[in-house]
Amino acid sequence: MAGDNPDSNLIYLHGDLDLKIIEARCLPNMDLVSERLRRCLAPFDLCRKPCTSSTRGNHHHHRKIITSDPYVTVCLAGARVARTRIISNSQNPVWEEHFKIPLAHPVSQVEFEVKDNDVFGADLIGIAILPAKRIASGELIDEWFPVIGSNGKPPKPDTAIRLQMTFIPCQQNPFT
């Protein structure tokens, strides 16, 4: 379709993006596959801690709930411009991370990739997309954005990421 051409929405974002990645909610449990693999290997003792004098005789096994280890990357026109820390075992992570990102990119949208850190590499949970036109307006944006999986739907109902940002064009920056 002609209206779907991303180049028709290109905007040159030249300035500073004041971004806060606050939190996410209702993330799916992406570590189920890793946990199942660990259980399959358990009879072969490949994933068990070595027995030490302090653990000998202690046969109480507490099941630890394994969930996702999420983090967020911020991408513009294929360039990763920011990344949060990993929050271990959380389906509702709180990052509260602040970034000041200098931009000089022709983009149609900004992508916030929510990923799960895993032993076998990162798995994409989903992406929240914000149109560049909205960012360029300079308005304060503080809201929840839906996270959409690779199938075009949210991985779970109400999966979302909370972001806060303001774009300051270089013409308005007193230090340029």
TrEMBL record:
C2 domain sequence ranges: 1-145
Alphabetized SMART domains for the sequence: C2
Example GO molecular function: phospholipase D activity
GO BP, one annotated term: phospholipid catabolic process
Keywords: Lipid metabolism, Repeat
One Pfam family here: C2
GO cellular component: plasma membrane
Superkingdom, taxonomy of origin: Eukaryota
PANTHER family reported for this sequence: PHOSPHOLIPASE D
Name used for this protein in its record: Phospholipase D delta
Protein's organism: Sesamum calycinum
